């Protein structure tokens, strides 16, 4: 048991060192120019330690960002009143602005977008299940809205957040409500 705990501790330490090294490199380099060799050298671990934990640098980034983004969505789903959920998601984006800007500048935004879209789809499945939409409508509406919400927040963050958070929230809510009503009326 002690050996297993020790091995798990070493694995967690390696993951932490690798993540820290990659994030440090991303401060000055684009993701597509960073190599596993650079990351392991900076982290002070072996290539074997890297490949025991991750298959790629993108997987390392996913392992780092996914738990934080997922936790924020879960917090909103479980602890925020229904009429404040979109506003709370907006607060997440405001807090996430520096990371989003770095992701866009350094070429790893696709990792953030994928994690966001998965969590947004789960969010909509949980909050929109009783809207009266047919299953196929809900499936594609969820994809449409997830992509749209991401694009709106991305644009807002990367263009200096000149509109108020309330304006952005109202815009998204209007799109959400209008598209939902249009689909319900077509049934």
Description:
The structure is a single chain. The chain has 187 residues and is mainly alpha-helical. The chain folds into two domains: 1-54, Orthogonal Bundle (Arc Repressor Mutant, subunit A), CATH 1.10.10; 56-186, Tetracycline Repressor, domain 2 (Orthogonal Bundle), CATH 1.10.357.10. Helix content is 80%, strand content 0%. It has eight helices and no strands. It has helices at residues 2-26, 36-43, 47-53, 57-79, 85-106, 109-127, 135-158, 165-186. Helix 5 (85-106) packs across helix 8. The radius of gyration is 20 Å and the shape is elongated. The mean pLDDT is 87.
In short:
The protein is mostly helical and 187 residues long.
**DSSP strand content:** under 5%
Level-2 CATH architecture of the largest domain: Orthogonal Bundle
Helix fraction, binned, reads over 70%
CA-based shape = elongated
Q: Output the CATH homologous superfamily of the largest domain.
A: Tetracycline Repressor, domain 2
DSSP, total strands: 0
Report the uncertain regions: none
The helix/strand series, from N terminus to C terminus, equals: HHHHHHHH
CA-to-CA gap between the ends? Answer: 59 Å
Overall tally of domains: 2
Radius of gyration: 20 Å
